[in-house]
Amino acid sequence: MNQIIAHIDMDCFFAAVEEKHMPELKGKPLVIGSLPGQRGVVATANYTARKFGIKSAMPTWKAEQLCKDAIFKKGNHKLYKEESNNIMEILKKFATDFEQVSIDEAYLNITDFAIKQKSLTEAARLIKKEVLKYTKLTCSIGISDSRYVSKIASDIKKPAGTTIVSNNKEFLKPLKINKIPGIGKVAYKKMIDLNINTIGDLAKANKFKLLDNFGKHIIKFQNLAKGEDKTGVSSNIYSKHKSISKETTFLEDINLYECNNHVETIANKVHQELQKYGYKTVSIKIKYSDFQTITRDYSLKTTSKTKEEIIKKARILLNQIPNNKQIRLFGIKLSNLIDNFQSQTTITAFI
Ligand code: TTP
Ligand code: MG
């Protein structure tokens, strides 16, 4: 493998944000979600409340029963989103590829950053320090050369923990089977019935027995259990470059054939803005003289950076549209923007 992947997950995120904004809540058992008396569930609880057994998705009445002194608060999602945006902006600075996967977690390709530090532990320490400095919130980090292993690792020493994995197979072996992301309750129960209790058990389980009981999707999980994960971080740039688009309104309405003559000019303009990003989706937009607007997308199999590809795909899209109405506006959009950088370092070089 040739990349160092960090998975970062904020600690008791909603509760931590509430504590930050209301310091008087610190140290007290705090539960975010439905309020007592409402029929709802716990979104999250701080680590003090978790000591009483309170957890996410538990009915609120049960949380009340477990801890009489718990403070219940309704969630403030606007605030959490703002905090999340700030966190992600900080994390991006450490990554060549960055993929946010939920409000409080992201995958980072930190290969380049890690090379410059004396160890991966130091790299993790610096990331956590920066997040804490600017947001006053703590996070946990898992680092390995596998996306899935890093995800599992970030959960091992919560809160504010760092887990660095150099041998994926050995790390995974003793862990309970439900630690694998994507193994749901039903599959979990079935596995326990089949005496597959740990990830190590899954790794060495008979393939035919697995196929018989779970179908072909289980093979992906078995490969993961063996530490064979080849998925990297597929960069989705959430920052200022969500998409790039350019459009033009014609002085006089034109037909579809005439519109073809404008493809190159517009493609030039979007391409100029692309800078260091690659794109995976080319879209066109047409506004007819009656103001009806249509869009068409073309998703590429691999990332591209070239102007020629934009022109080619925009033309293909354009030629699929019937030439039956006059056009007043034409535009091209590039989305699914990717930072293509790939590094060639192995994780063992750092440990
Ligand atoms: P998580 O990262 O799963 O949980 P967490 O950050 O609260 O705690 P941990 O320290 O274990 O990471 O989820 C992030 C936020 O998403 C969480 O703060 C609240 C919300 N959430 C729900 O609303 N419902 C749920 O069932 C879960 C799991 C999370
Ligand atoms: Mg979290």
Describe the structure.
It is built from 15 helices and 13 strands. Helix 14 packs across helix 15. The radius of gyration is 25 Å and the shape is globular. The protein is of the alpha+beta class. The longest helix is centred in the N-terminal third of the chain and has 16 residues. The C terminus is likely disordered. The chain is 37% helix and 24% strand. The structure holds thymidine-5'-triphosphate and magnesium ion (MG).
The residue ranges in which pLDDT falls below 50 over 5 or more consecutive positions are 341-351
Question: How big is the Rg?
Answer: 25 Å
Give the helix tally. 15
Largest sheet report: 5 strands, mixed
Order of helices and strands: EHEEHHEHEEHHEHEHHHHHEHHEEHEE
Q: List each distinct ligand once.
A: thymidine-5'-triphosphate, magnesium ion
Residue fraction in strands: 15-25%
End-to-end Cα distance, whole Å, is 15 Å
* Overall residue-averaged pLDDT value: 90
> What oligomeric state best describes the polypeptide chains here?
single chain
| Overall morphology | globular
Q: Strand pairing plus helix content: what structural class?
A: alpha+beta
Number of strands: 13
Give the helix level as a range of percent: 25-40%
Q: Strands of the biggest beta sheet: in what spatial order?
A: 5-6-1-7-8
